[in-house]
Please model this.
Amino acid sequence: MALRNTALAKLNGGSFDVLIIGGGINGAVSAAVLAGRGATVALVDRGDFGSFTSQESSNLVWGGFKYLEGYELLLVRKLCVSRNRLIKSYPDNIKPIPFVAALDEASPHPTWLAALGATGYWGIGSFRTHRPRYLSTEKISEIAPMVNTEGVVGGIEYYDAYLPDNDSRFVFSFVRSALDVGATAVNYVEAVGAERRDGRWQVTLQDVDSGGEPFTCTARILINAAGPFIDGVSEELDVKTAHRVVYSKGIHLIVPQITPDERVLAFYDDTGRLFYVIPMGRRSVIGTTDTRIDTPYTEVTDEDREFLLDQINARLDLPEPLTPEDVIADRSGVRPLVVAAGGGDQQDVDWTKLSRKHEIETDDAASVISIFGGKLTDCLNVGEEIADEVERLGIPLEKDTHTWYGEPAKATREEFYRQARLMRLDSLRDKPDMEPLSDRLWRRYGRRAFEMLDEIRQDPSMGEDIIESADYLRVELCLAAETEMVTKLEDFLRRRSKITQVIKEEDVRSSPGLHEAAEILFGDDADERLAEYWGSLRSP
Model:
């Protein structure tokens, strides 16, 4: 907790160029670019970083193939370019992956049109991915034998990308990047009031984790990156905007591995909407749905679960149909979709035709920048546009050297793998079908993985697993405790890692290593944090 306490002390009474409200992907990338270009930056979130919409995605980095249906060619082009940049900048964290779409007679588009669209999509993306291809029913059975081809008339294969780890960890990488260059970022801190005085914002903040008296800081510019709560923050700041958001609920179910290779299966459900089977290591993710909802707070209902299981069971030829007992975990969140303000309530919006575009609005007089909508794929574009607006409002920034994002240089990576081979790091693992430790540690931690090698050399027990079946080492928890601002146990189990997404809740709770993990993360507060976590699981 030392990292968080230090950040709180800097925040209390601090004076900043920019204060960002919201630590999802939009807020995190804004903090990274601005701090990386020399601004003094503070970032607060009333929950954990990436703990709301940004932890409920499909873990996909894609250009929006389905947006071609609405002829949004410029949006698709922009997203494809951003996808290509992310693949190039994060070669170990963002991987190209084939999508196999099986089409039947009820699909909204014939196979020839889908194949034409895939070719156009490839071209719009500057031909940077593998060439798409038409698939016969026989070819689908060959490359994806688990697909039930009864009624299938053909299909297509095209490429996008995905995150082998989890979305919220990717979000935190931008927060960590901002911290590394001097930003002040604190989770579980809520902005409870703000007033404009003498050309600066005086913001009242509250530590919602430990309580205590409210405190203040000041900033020249506020960035409203509150995601689905952006409209409420705008109202509190008395800022009028030309846009607002409406909500689309999406869910995912995580089940035992369906596809033995890294391949996404795509289908149209009975309502004509696309859904997917996405790999997640030794698990598969089924989703997502698309349901209009009037609140940002969602949950997976029995009806949601039954719908997705019925849809996937009808389209896969499995030894046994999937049942609710096969569901290891689920995800439920809203997409904040951008519409024009003053255009009626949510009932008046044809939300099924809305895309995941973003809009950035600036109130020059109030020095407030608002980020509406967006998605993970678009994050670099959002960051650069925010930097442009901050400069326009009078905050000078250093030249953009593009070092605020991306993985370390190739030479640094090669040196890590050289050291890992010399100490025979991968020999610490004797579990079948497990990713090599060297790959996993480098992908998750980059330069900080060198420190882990040193710790394991000095103390081999640091290379041991802590939580059974979780595939996390003692050294990883030690590093998380020091550098990742883990404040609650869920922060580590759900967001810095994906443990509770790939292991059933009851198995995590009964793991003999859970208490040691809490002791490493929280020291003397371990029992309190464990009790807090178990209490949250019992809450409705």
